[in-house]
């Protein structure tokens, strides 16, 4: 499995490609950052992010794209830029028919370090160890992108099993719902006789 991880951001959008399967050693194929100038117009910055991600998709041809799920309770302005960059990454993948997976920061941290509350240094150290790198990728956005890709490779088999189980039970669930609807319709069209009054 080859996964492009995207740590979305307008100023620095981390990107990293990891290949492998769960339970086996993983290989980093590439890591970097798509940068845009903070003083540029928003539309131009989003175009720059799109062009950067398109180049990574062209070069590495990933089977999946893993993007950090955006949420925050604090700085709305920062979250808006991150969400816009995230949408660009999803659009680029969807246009090529590449499946996109969203992972929360705590899911990624837990998958890579064992703790959903790990800090950036711990994530960088574990990414370095898991991918057998000489040094942690810089900046942290790049390491986070690799962590996203690793998280998806490790979580995908379990997610696939859940989706397959849901697909197998869907026909039975639909049939049961149809029987209930028919029974309700039959009951509505044939109301019970009213009791006699004295």
Q: How many β-strand stretches?
A: 5
CATH level-two architecture: 2-Layer Sandwich
Beta strand %: 15-25%
Largest sheet: 5 strands, mixed
Return the CATH class. Alpha Beta
Number of helices: 5
* CATH third-level topology: Nucleotidyltransferase, domain 5
Q: Based on Cα principal axes, name the global outline.
A: elongated
Q: Write out the CATH superfamily name.
A: Ribonuclease H-like superfamily/Ribonuclease H
| Radius of gyration over C-alpha positions, nearest whole angstrom | 23 Å
**How widely separated are the two ends?**
78 Å
Structural class: alpha/beta
Q: Could you walk me through the main structural features you see in this protein, from its secondary elements to its overall organization?
A:
Residues 166-192 have a biased composition (Low complexity). Residues 166-198 are annotated as: Disordered. Belongs to the RuvC family. It is a single chain. Helices cover 55% and strands 16% of the residues. The chain is α/β, with parallel strands linked by helices. The chain has one domain (2-160): Ribonuclease H-like superfamily/Ribonuclease H (Nucleotidyltransferase, domain 5). Strand 2 (12-19) and strand 3 (27-35) form a beta hairpin. The longest helix has 50 residues, at 140-189.
């Amino acid at each position: 499995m080859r996964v492009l991880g995207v740590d979305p951001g307008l100023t620095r959008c981390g990107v990293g490609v990891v290949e492998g399967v769960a339970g086996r050693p993983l290989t980093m194929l590439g890591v970097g950052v798509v940068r845009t100038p903070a003083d540029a117009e928003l539309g131009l910055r989003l175009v720059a992010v799109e062009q950067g991600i398109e180049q990574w998709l062209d070069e590495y041809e990933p089977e999946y794209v893993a993007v950090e799920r955006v949420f925050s309770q604090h700085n709305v302005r920062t979250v808006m830029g991150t969400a816009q960059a995230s949408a660009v990454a999803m659009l680029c993948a969807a246009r090529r028919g590449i499946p996109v997976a969203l992972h929360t920061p705590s899911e990624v941290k837990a998958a890579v370090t064992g703790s959903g509350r790990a800090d950036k240094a711990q994530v960088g150290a574990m990414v370095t160890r898991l991918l057998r790198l000489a040094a942690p990728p810089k900046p942290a956005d790049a390491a986070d992108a690799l962590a996203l890709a690793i998280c998806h490779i490790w979580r995908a088999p379990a997610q696939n099993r859940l989706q397959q189980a849901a697909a197998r039970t869907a026909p039975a669930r639909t049939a049961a719902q149809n029987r209930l609807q028919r029974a309700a319709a039959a009951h509505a069209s044939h109301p019970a006789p009213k009791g006699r009054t004295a």
